[in-house]
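Build the 3D complex.
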Amino acid sequence: MTETDNTVLNVKNLNVWYGDFHAVKGISLEYQRNTISAIIGPSGCGKSTYLRCLNRIHEETPGARAEGEILFQGENILSKMVDPVRVRRSIGMVFQKPNPFPGMSIYDNVVVGLKLQGIKKKNILMEHAEKCLQKAALWEEVKDKLNRPGMSLSGGQQQRLCIARSLAVSPPILLMDEPTSALDPIATAKIEELMSELKKEVTVIIVTHNMQQAARIADNTSFFVLGDLIEHGLSEEIFTNPKNKKTEDYISGKFG
Amino acid sequence: MREWHLKYRKLKNIVFHMALVFAACAVIIPLFMVIQYVMIKGFNSLNWDFFTQIPKPVGEVGGGMKHAIIGTFIIVGLAGSFAIPLGIICGAYLSEYGRGKIAALLRLSTDVLTGIPSIVIGIFAYLLVVVPLKQFSTLAGALALSIIILPVVIRSTEEILKLVPRHIREAGLALGLPRWKMIFFIVIKGSRSGLITGVILAISRAAGETAPLLFTSFGNMYYSTSLTNPIASLPVQIYTYAISPFDDWQRQAWAGALVLIILVLGLNLISRLIMNRQQLGFGRRK
Ligand SMILES: Nc1ncnc2c1ncn2[C@@H]1O[C@H](COP(=O)(O)OP(=O)(O)O)[C@@H](O)[C@H]1O
Ligand SMILES: [Mg+2]
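Done.
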């Protein structure tokens, strides 16, 4: 009972096609409040495709078509009746490649979402920017150069800036698509560190190529192969005692 | 055998290199000769009066082109204020939504518009504004120039916005921004230095146009800022003076040509500076 009360996102029988290519095959998963859930699997198995449906950013891909249900706050957000803009306000996304907005300062990158929602008061914005940069573990590094371009930061800093930018609009859910795959180990460690803090406030669903990363940070892990959900469960279980042979082979490095 | 081959290749290299240098000189030398000639001729006739006086009555020596300099600024400014917003909106439409029939039509019209001789555009503005108002006017001139500026702005905007990677747009949408806000405040704003460059180049081209102004804004020997009356402009004033029989006017035509060249080169220089300064942009490699 408590389990269902805590469910923030409930994916039911999600199917995705690119033209006739069936990329995600009938996946059902539930996500609990304030947890980190990882999605692992060999490259091309539909992890990004799946994740991108969760905030309907998949609609930006020409030819992509999703069917099924994604229940969020009692509503199927995949329904055409629901405005994707409203969905994305609640379900943010951090991308694989760090992508600060060009021509914008560090400060503007963080507050742009709020500004464009109509919040104009300088002191509120500033306060919020500081808070979000702190949550993204970037504040100390940038507090003296908030007016420098976001693009002037290092890759790892840029990615943390993107995390701060997503947090600034206070989404209850944050999707991350291999957020550290373009970063060096030190930058990766920084981001992993901040994630455990992050889950106090948001529910995180993270795609990762890196199984150690999933084992380190995720409460739950789902394993995909060729668009199918092979196994889902607590990370400890999946990584120490997988039930499925394929999962075992994958985590022991036999394929993928 | 090998040695011979190597020598042959070296020779080919030298010949080819020289051909390139020659081609470059063929372009640069005439350009410099023109500029140098205008500099010498114009500089001698340039004085303070040129910028502060309007023409003296025919036959009297002296006077200047203050009215034409200001006139050019008014016509070009007005043309820009029509064409730049419209051009950026159309360019953004092509870049962000650019599929489908309307986009194809817009692209075709833009290309056609670019190819139309400027004098024909002048005739068009004549029919559209001068004939109904029964009067040459600033407005007619500005319309003609705005039609010249418009396609250049549309095309440069489209090209520049297309440089913005898709994931930047997705990141904007993922913040819960409506598409139009994402386009205006992230894609367009983020590309502003590139857009400004395109706009400046379009404006600087229009500023030197004579033909479309001849029967739209016409010309005026007096200072006027009225939108519905004929107005002087540098190119038309230069043209009028250059074909006149008076030495003094011909001298002033050279001075006008110099000012016009400096104006246009200055605008080009500014756009270069903006381009070079653009470190905020994307596509920066690490
Ligand atoms: N835009 C697209 N059009 C067609 N097929 C695509 C497109 N994007 C991804 N795919 C295909 O869908 C499958 C899943 O891709 P993706 O979700 O990116 O995998 P992952 O993120 O797990 O590496 C792959 O076989 C890929 O080739
Ligand atoms: Mg992927």
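Chain A touches chain B at residues 55, 57, 60, 84-90, 92-93, 95, 97, 99, 101-104, 112-113, 116-117, 149, 151-152, 155, 162, 165-166, 169, 171 (CB under 8 Å).
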